[in-house]
Each structure stands twice: as C-alpha cells, then as structure tokens.
Amino acid sequence: MRVGNFLAVLGASGSGKSSVVRAGLLYQLQLGRRLSGSESWQIKIFQPGEHPLNSLALAFLDSELSDIERATQLAQAEELIKKGSEGLRQIISVADTPKVVLVVDQFEEAFTLCQDTSERQEFFACLFDALPKTDKLCLVLTMRAYFFSKCIEQEYSGLAQLMQQHGVVVMGMSEEELRKAIVEPAKQVELEIEPALVEQILADVADAPGYLPLLQYTLTRLWEERTDNCLRLKTYVQLGGVMGTWRQRADQVYEGFDEEEKAAVRHIFLELTQLGEGTEDTRRRVLQPNLVNQRYGEKLIETVVQKLADEKLVVTTEMVGKGGGVERVAVVDVAHEALIRHWSLLRSWVSENRDVIRIKRKIEMAAEEWESQRKLKDDLLVGSKLTEAENFLGNYEKLGLLSFLGKEFIDRSIQQRNINKLLAVMTLVGAITSIAFDAFGGVTIECTTRKIDTSPEIRKSCKLCLGLPWSR
User: Fold this and answer.
1) pLDDT confidence tier of residue 68, bands split at 50, 70 and 90
2) Residues with Cβ < 8 Å from 365, sequence gap 6 or more?
3) For residue 221, what are the CA distances in angstroms to 108, 151, 187, 246?
4) d(CA 386, CA 78)
5) Which residues 6+ apart lie within 8 Å of 49 measured at CB?
6) 123 and 53 in contact (C-beta within 8 Å)?
7) Which domains does the chain have, with CATH numbers?
8) Which of 4, 186, 277, 387 can pair with 191 through a Cys bridge, CB separation 3.0 to 4.6 Å?
C-alpha cells in the first residue's frame, strides 16, 4: 500500500482473506499509524455479484443521505460508470479525501455469478484502466486462489500481470498460530480451555480445507454450551467436533421446521448455491423477492429466511431496489461457503437436482434478457429451447423451482407458438377460400363469425379474420 495503488489478496476458501483485509489492513488504515494520513482516506467495499457494474455504482452511495437523495446519487453514479474507466476516474476525483480505497471482496464472483461476458469485460476495464488515470484510487481485491486461472484466460486489462506483481497470498496457519487463535481470545475474558480440547481441535483441523469458519462456529457453540467458566472436551465430543458441529446445528434447525417450511428451506439453499462449471460449488447471493414464486409465497419465504438468519445459517443485507428507486430490497446469502461444502443434507439436494437447476437457471437468464428487452415476442423461446422448457415445466413445476418471471416467459412462449400455428392454418384456409372466390365469383360461405358475401364491409372483416388477400 505504501508503494503502489493495487493489491490482490489471494488464498484458499476459508483461509481468512476477507478477515485479514477488513479487520487487519482497513483497521490499520483507519488508525492512521502505519501510513501517515490514512485515517482520512475513504474506504468503499463491495462484492461484484451477478451485475458487477451495478454493484460498483452502489459502492459510492452515501449511507447518511435520505432515500430520495440516495436514489439520485445512484442514478448519477450509474451514468458515470457506464462511461467506463473515465467515469470511475471522475467519481474518484470529486471525492473529498486524499485517497479512495476501493475494496472488491470475493472478486471471484465476477466469474462465478456474472454470466454476461461483455459485462465482465466492461467491469474489468472500468477498474483496471482507471488505475493509471488517477493516483487518488487504490484498488484492493480479495479472491480465492483457485480462480487465478480464470484471470489468465483473457487479457482482462492486464489483471493477471497486476496480480502476479502485486499479490499477497494468505497461507494456512501453522499449528502454533492456530493454537494462539484458540487460546488467546479465551484468556482475554479469563476463560479456561481444557488442554485436551485444544489438542483434539488441532488434530481435527489439521487437514481440513477452509477450517477457520468451522472453527469459529465450533468455538462459539462451545461458549454457548458451557456450564462453568471452562470449555471442555466432553462438550466438544457431544457437539460432533469441528466438522460435525455445523452439520449437526444445520440439521437441528432444519428438523425444527414444519413440512411446508422444510420445502422452503430446501428451495432457499438450492437458490443460494452457485453450481461450479469445472470448479467447486460456491455461494450465490439472491434478492429475497426472487425467492418467492407460485409455490413459495412471500410470507413463507420471509418467515423461513428470518429463522435461518436468527440461527446464523444465512445472512441478510439490504440494497437499493432495481431501477434506483427509494425502495430497499433484502439480499440473502449463506453464512459461509463451508456450509455448502460440509452440510451433507444440502450436498444431497444439490447432487439430486444439479441438472434440473442448470436448466432452470438457463431459462431464467433468458427470461431476464426478455424482460430487459421490454418483453418483445422476438426474444421468446422457440424450437428445441421451447421444447426443453416445456418438458421442464411438465416434469418439475411441482418442485416450485421456477421464478414468476421464468414461468411467465415459458407461458408466453407457448402462447406465441400457438398463435403462430393458428396464423399458419388460417393463412392456408384463406388461400383455399380465395381460390374458391376466384373460381365461383360472389358466393356465400360459412364463417366462424358470420356469413361472408362480397360487400366491401364484409370483405374487410374477413381480411382481418383470416388474413386474406382479396382478388376482387
């Protein structure tokens, strides 16, 4: 940070990348002791999500403004971000601070959640092309090292080279560091820990990937279950150890729901899981209203999400509603990806429905594109894509997987196909009728609406009905 304006913090999932940036780096900057004057710097944090350019614009909203003022500010930020790196430079240049530290946490979401390659390219160009244009911007990324290979698939405005030159890797803790992480916080509140418990925990996490969030949760549970001022091995064994603690807790929470709520829990967690394409499954943040569909109503979703949040299995935040209005929308996310990897019940749901989920999301992506194009009939499903969507609806509609928009998209596509078929039949009937008129002159034939003769008024109505060209 002293010598450059770019920093990439890489590491395995659960290695503490976000923590070391948020609680380490940013905390030190706010103190202003390690870098002179850094206490006056502005710090903006965001996650890319499905639409990273929108997320970038949202990062520059002032939380102290009124909703109406924030909506105006968002519209201005979005307009500037559309200009790319020059627009971002303009936003940075007017900030009332010597430097703006822009933190992109979980940067891999630009690959896992953003499915629009052109938007991804625009996002990267906006960020990285702005760096040489202003010395007022400092860009910090956190990303799982697993996704570094994605950064070298294309040029991406020099992203891979920047990471190689200015990357810091968060390594796993040594045994001694991990021992301190377990024991020292307890000492601060004069809490005892049985030595046998510490040794057992160290043994259990020795070869476990992403163990830090699991360890954090386990220690919290040990604290909650204590009967005196000591954390004991016996309690740890009863909880199921590091790996079993979270699974056991998730299972207990799930079993506490009624049958309707259990189905909603399954629906919610499947929606919150991003399927890996040659990579591991990851988290997927979802707007809470998008969890509501024909099977799972708004009240049910709201109730279940709140219970899951109370039990620390999901996290809810808020963002400005679509279109930049004053409405605030809840966003739902899993508490940590370790839950996706280690909760066996969720893993079974994902495994059983992996192919179905892929089809569903492909339909919903097309539906969102259709909606963005003002629902034009030219963007509806046709041919094999419509057949696949119909089969999906016939086989899996009862599961309640599809969103309202996705269902409407399929229904409208089917309606349009039926209209096209009817028009084709009517055109054929019209052609035959036209031949009959040519052959026999002003004859009267039966119509579904009225008798047709050769008067001008009736000819007009018949043309509208059948789409006929009149020869005379």
Assistant:
1) confident
2) 115
3) 30, 38, 17, 9
4) 35
5) 55, 109, 113, 114, 285
6) yes
7) 6-170 (3.40.50.300), 175-250 (1.10.8), 419-466 (no CATH)
8) 186
DSSP assignment of 341-378 = HH-HHHHHHHHHHHHHHHHHHHHHHHHHHHHHTTT-GG
Query: How much is the mean pLDDT over the chain?
Result: 86
Q: Provide DSSP, 408-441.
A: HHHHHHHHHHHHHHHHHHHHHHHHHHHHHHHHHS
Tell me, yes or no, if the pTM score tops 0.85.
no
pLDDT per residue as tens digits for the range 413-469 = 999 998 888 888 888 877 776 666 655 555 444 555 444 454 555 555 555 555 555
Which residues contact residue 377 at a Cβ distance below 8 angstroms, ignoring those fewer than 6 apart?
A: 412, 416
Q: First and final CA of the chain: distance in angstroms?
A: 84
The torsion of the CA quartet 105, 107, 112, 115, rounded to 10 degrees, works out to 110
Give the tokens for residue 33.
């002791």
How many angstroms separate the CA atoms of 139 and 100, rounded? 8
Among all chains, which residue has been given the structure tokens 């052959």?
439
Are the C-beta atoms of 329 and 240 separated by less than 8 Å? no
CB 61 within 8 A of CB 101: no
SS3 106: coil
